[in-house]
Amino acid sequence: MVFSSALLENAVNEFAKLPGIGKKTALRLVLHLIKQDVPEVENFSQIIAKMRSEIKFCSRCHNISDKEICNICSNPMRQQQLICVVENIRDVIAIESTQQFNGVYHVLGGIISPLDGIGPEQLTIDALVARIVPEETQEIIFALNPNIQGDTTIYYIGRKLKGIPVKITTIARGIAFGGELEYADEMTLAKSISNRIPVENYISSGR
Amino acid sequence: MVFSSALLENAVNEFAKLPGIGKKTALRLVLHLIKQDVPEVENFSQIIAKMRSEIKFCSRCHNISDKEICNICSNPMRQQQLICVVENIRDVIAIESTQQFNGVYHVLGGIISPLDGIGPEQLTIDALVARIVPEETQEIIFALNPNIQGDTTIYYIGRKLKGIPVKITTIARGIAFGGELEYADEMTLAKSISNRIPVENYISSGR
What we know:
Two copies of one chain form a homodimer.
Chain A: H1 6-16, H2 23-35, H3 38-54, E1 56-57, E2 64-65, E3 82-86, H4 89-98, E4 104-107, H5 125-132, E5 139-142, H6 148-160, E6 167-170, H7 186-194, H8 199-204
Parallel strand pairs in A: 3-4, 3-5, 5-6
Antiparallel strand pairs in A: 1-2
Helix pairs in contact in A: 1-2
């Protein structure tokens, strides 16, 4: 792309650094901003800069936060003895959006994956283990993606927690609501049979 | 989407205002920025704000510009008597990227389209007509999209230029290089036959 304006070119190049944004999309975004009023674009720019410079990670659960301790951890209405362990911030947002979980979180910051060079020491596993006794945690729910890395991470943390009296569970794996048996993979179908639940539980769980 | 951080939520909402960027994509972009260093994100933010507050439109050709007169208009190496008329800035970038055109431009800022409520008075047509005599323009090339609106615009401007001794041309319409006759629409195929070119021209034009 050949630009006749350095201002335009620099702005397009900045947008094109973002993941999944190519030069053509970047140009479309910049031309859109040019059509907006100056104060509006200044506002956009300030909100982004402020977000980056002020954002923190909760010192307790490692979720993204505006303060030292995040809104979820500091909310007295939430069950502080129930910890949901997730891989990243995106998973916290997904679970919060269901409005079905009333405990707190622990964000691992990734998942054990030797092939990607990610070992337990790069994750917040030690911080999780250190929370359990002082916080008198009653239950840890693993909400990790159902794959080998997720299972490895659950197994590793489970071993670290040996001897500590805390209930350990994982989110149910099975046929997704609206899904069809016929198209489910064998692993999922097999697990959904071996982990079958009594129908009275199924009905009382609101389905 | 439920956020536990207002800083995050505001930033996501700002990105989601951009065209073609939904909430999920906006979140992905913001989480990417959070992973970058603070000065890098400040740089991003400043470049965008600076671009919007300092960008101008060339007073001669209405192209986007860093100065009162754009780089193309003020370049003495370019043929100032050859004006290529385009709909918008994106078209200037597309033609400049071919590196085949050495004249100057005139950006209409749109195209005559009564159905969308766009009439000639909303475009820079008067400014174009006013350029021709003082600039001693020899040729105007219309590089508009080949459709009814494009043809209407060419016809309207052509009538305005009646009596002014200037050559008026349009970019060739025909079967795209690499295209197949079989799949061309009838209109394009018909025009490519009625506007056929002698083979000597075809060969000398570098193909």
